[in-house]
Every structure is written in structure tokens, then in C-alpha cells.
Design goal:
The protein is built from 4 helices and 3 strands; from the N terminus they run βαββααα. By secondary structure, it is mainly alpha-helical.
Length: 97
């Protein structure tokens, strides 16, 4: 599991995408680009408060089945939307205009 609290002040977190690509569910602050990189409740949790961050982190620690399921969904999301193959396809489309 990857957790990212808001006091780090990073809104588009590459480490978060790397964790998701490794099959880890994420628990992050509901800020900036991070909320756009995950499917809340499916690949991780976007939190509005420190209490939510603690609660969702605890939930994933206590539920290995949910942690595995959400981790698998996180990996699928990154493969579909942020993989090298996807980037290559999008760049090719942009450059061939």
C-alpha cells in the first residue's frame, strides 16, 4: 500500500503512479492530479481529511483481500492510461495531425 499525506504538497505524484503500476492500492489526499489518477474505492482512496487517510489506511491494513483487489485494479488503470505503449500511441496520434 502507498499512502501520501497532504503535507508533502505534491499534487501530481509520479511515486503514486509507480506504486499503482506495482499493484499497490493508494491512499492519498483528495488534491490536484492525484484524485484524477485513481478510481476512489476501486484502485485506492482519495481522502478529504487526515482522519479519512488514517481510516482508509487502517482498512487496507486489516483487509488483505481488499488490498489485493484494489492493487490489481490500480495496476490495470496504470497499464490502460499511463503505460509506455499508451503514451506512444497518444504521441503518434498527436504528431500525425
Amino acid at each position: 500500500m502507498y499512502a501520501h499525506a497532504d503535507y508533502w504538497r505534491e499534487t501530481a505524484c509520479v511515486a503514486m503512479l509507480e506504486a499503482m503500476a506495482c499493484g499497490l492500492p493508494v491512499v492519498v489526499t483528495n488534491a490536484g492530479g492525484m484524485r484524477e489518477y485513481l478510481l476512489h474505492g476501486r484502485s485506492g482512496f482519495a481522502c478529504d481529511s487526515n482522519e479519512e487517510l488514517i481510516g482508509f489506511t487502517r482498512l487496507l491494513l486489516e483487509r488483505p483481500d481488499l488490498r489485493r483487489q484494489m492493487g490489481a485494479e490500480a495496476r490495470r488503470f496504470v497499464e490502460c492510461h499511463h503505460s509506455i505503449a499508451n503514451l506512444n500511441q497518444r504521441l503518434h496520434q498527436l504528431l500525425s495531425l
